[in-house]
Design goal:
By secondary structure, the chain is mostly beta strands. It has one domain. It contains two helices and twelve strands; from the N terminus they run ββββββαββββββα. The chain has helices spanning about 70-75, 160-165, and strands at about 10-15, 20-25, 30, 35-45, 45-55, 60-65, 80-90, 95-110, 120-135, 135-145, 150, 155. Strands 1, 2, 3, 6, 7, 8, 9, 10, 11 and 12 form a ten-stranded antiparallel β-sheet that branches. Strands 4-5 form a two-stranded antiparallel ribbon. β11 and β12 form a beta hairpin. The longest helix has 7 residues, at about 70-75. The radius of gyration is 19 Å and the shape is globular.
């Protein structure tokens, strides 16, 4: 008989930048979507999408609910920003750490000011590096500069690197 698995919950998150410090209050961080590039083919009376072995661009986004000098300081630098998102994942009465590391340049939308509403600043990251670890185990490592795409320990771009080296 199959065991019923309990769902996992994100208890809380904190966002840090460039080792400088805490960015501020955020209750959601949109991690990069891992999407393959696909080409449409017509075969056997069907139209099908076939992976071509490459990935779509990576983007991440989050909203801060306060002003942070660390965001402005990171934006003023010419190099890519380095974000670390730390979370606590809870399931079956136990919490484990989750860490997302993201490097890339970013855009900052300072939002609008409305009386009696929370401050909201949206940060959109053009991701060049992404790593996700849960409870110390690496789930994903995507490195656009070094052509690495490790998913569950398997580097999906190893053959490509070998073929063109």
């Amino acid at each position: 008989m199959a065991e019923i698995k309990a769902p996992e919950f994100i208890q809380d998150i904190n966002v840090f930048v460039n080792g400088i410090g805490h960015l501020g209050v955020s209750d959601e961080f949109e991690l990069p979507k891992i999407q393959f590039n696909r080409e449409t083919q017509n075969a056997g009376g069907f139209e099908i999408d076939v992976k071509n072995g490459t990935f779509q661009k990576l983007e991440a986004k989050f909203v801060l609910k306060q002003y942070s000098k660390n965001v402005i300081e990171a934006m003023s630098k010419s190099e890519d920003a380095y974000f670390v998102v730390k979370g606590s994942v809870f399931s079956d009465g136990k919490a484990v750490p989750a860490v997302a590391t993201i490097k890339g340049d970013f855009d900052l939308d300072l939002g609008s000011w409305k009386a009696k509403e929370q401050v909201k600043k949206t940060i959109e990251i053009k991701v060049k590096f992404f790593e996700l670890e849960v409870n110390g185990k690496q789930f994903v490592q995507l490195d656009t500069k070094n052509m690495i795409a490790k998913i569950n320990g398997t580097d999906l771009l190893a053959e490509l690197r070998s073929n063109i080296a």
